[in-house]
Design a protein that fits this description.
The structure is a homodimer of 322-residue chains. With 322 residues, chain A is mostly helical. Chain A has one domain (4-317): Farnesyl Diphosphate Synthase. Chain A is 72% helix and 1% strand. In chain A, strand 1 (87-88) and strand 2 (91-92) form a beta hairpin. Chains A and B meet through helix 4, helix 6 and helix 7 of A and helix 4, helix 6 and helix 7 of B.
């Protein structure tokens, strides 16, 4: 398999004006799982069905894979400005290390750089890939806007929430799979299976994130437990709890949602309500359904070592602790 | 000729989530000259050499023309956030009417919308158009960064300044011409002439802007005279004045650059220095050279009513009062 980290490192950001390109290099050098390009390359490998010695994916899948990673990092850069986040992957965010204007303009350029990479997709595949990439990018901006809107909306349903995380998180994984498979020559039903796999692991991933934020081990989770509870974030757990018919627990929960200044106590109390209502088990059940749905898609695809890695990935995401 | 205003109005922004799309519709409805799409369509018409009844440009040039206009308006939206500008085309800017985060996210989506329009470029022309569009977008971000850098740089040369305005303003006009001509089937030397025409009218346009900011008629210019002088903006006029061998005038000018709080007096005094040094005439001469260079490019192209309109446009830009 192509080394995606090496490919990312080989992108050149040592260009003028430094104020524009240095923050792009800084953002891309900060690591991360490289999940999206890995999915694109692995999807291509699945389609090529082990016909390649050592499973090597041809170079022509790489530009789209890199475009997906650059795009993903662009969204993090601009999200951090909007959320006033100060730390990302253990380092100061761009708007902290430089300033807001630098983060806005370098982010814009990073989005353009994603499209520059996309321009290297084989010409016969470019029209569809560009369309799908645009649909994916649009879904993410829409998901981000819904996430903001939901903060001030008292009537968010579980369906609303699932729609939001699908757009904000899952669609990028789904299109990474589909684009990788398409460039490798996949047929329509294969592309649909790849897309659905990405969509479902994305949903499972996000729900597991919601669960770990409450029930994770502080030693392995990497950030403070209870962050979502502190800021009343409308996660699957909170929305599920609010649906309870146990009016006493619901009243207690609503009291905590308007409480201020007693953060530690609030995290403990709300967690206790969740546990009492069986909210964790319900969320885990939804997550497991999406993991199972992702795994079922893999059965429709050629079976080879790449398919096996996708199977392991879906299972790992569902049992991860951090 | 296709009605570009009607085409822009027919773009649909009445979509959910409103918080994402409403600011895009608001920005595009605020008018403006529609110069860039008009250039793209006119360039196509030049190439088609009047072979079309009534000079009608086929529909297939329209998506790229619209993409250029949407992209241009995206740059205005984000520039207004970065410059803290409160008014644009007589209306509150997006970050004032909504907020900074809305302006950032809607701007991002607007950039993506430009690429969505681009995806409708005929497939055989798409690879090159996407590459050129990316080069254009990159030049504009670089130009914006240089503009910011130059504010704090005491050693900006006239060459630096010309490079900056070329990237920030002219390259978009140049690529509008080239892309329009390419989709219409222009050959390489025609595309080069179209590109150079756009580049030179862009430079002439920006220099005329610098001149009008000092010598314009407040009644027709539309904004306060002397804005560039007040904030020590490194325009062609200031950079030309600083090159003078008249050490007394130069010392006086430098004094005014560090003066604070005497704005009206400063505008009058610096204008007087410019006039004494003949800076206006020098800038006008540079502008006229670029207008002449633009006109010379037109001689290399098919001669028809569209070419004639481009000739009139170059002359109008050079003599405009607002």
């Amino acid at each position: 398999m192509l080394d995606i980290n090496k490919a990312i490192e080989s992108l050149n950001w040592d260009k003028e004006p430094r104020g524009l390109y240095e923050p792009i290099g800084y953002t891309l050098a900060s690591g991360g799982k490289r999940l999206r390009p890995t999915l694109a390359l692995t999807a291509a490998e699945v389609i090529m069905n082990g016909g390649l010695i050592n499973g090597d994916v041809p170079e022509h899948v790489l530009p789209a894979a890199l475009a997906l990673e650059v795009f993903h990092n662009f969204t993090l850069l601009h999200d951090d400005v909007m959320d006033r986040a100060e730390v990302r992957r253990g380092r100061p965010t761009v708007h902290v290390k430089w300033d807001d204007n630098t983060a806005i303009l370098s982010g814009d350029q990073m989005l353009i750089e994603a499209y520059k990479l996309l321009a290297d997709v084989p010409a016969d595949k470019l029209p569809k890939v560009l369309r799908w990439f645009n649909e994916m990018a649009t879904a993410i901006c829409e998901g981000q806007q819904y996430d903001v809107d939901f903060e001030h909306d008292a009537h968010v349903s579980i369906d609303d929430y699932m729609m939001m995380i699908e757009k904000k998180t899952s669609v990028l994984l789904a299109y990474a799979m589909k684009i990788g498979g398409y460039i490798a020559g996949g047929n329509e039903s294969q592309l649909e299976a790849l897309y659905q796999y990405g969509l479902h692991i994305g949903l499972a991933f996000q729900i597991q994130d919601d669960i770990l934020d409450v029930y994770g081990d502080p030693k392995t989770f990497g950030k403070a437990i209870g962050g979502d509870i502190r800021c009343n974030k409308k996660t699957l757990l909170l929305l599920t709890a609010l649906q309870t018919t146990d009016t006493e627990s619901k009243a207690e929960l609503l009291q905590w949602l308007i409480a201020t200044g007693r953060d530690e106590e609030k995290v403990a109390a709300v967690t206790a309500i969740y546990t009492r209502l069986g909210v964790r088990e319900q969320a885990e059940s939804v997550m497991e359904q999406h993991t199972a749905a992702a795994l079922a898609q893999l059965d429709k695809l050629p079976q080879n070592s790449a398919t096996e890695r996708l199977r392991e990935l879906a299972e790992k995401l569902a049992t991860r602790k951090s």
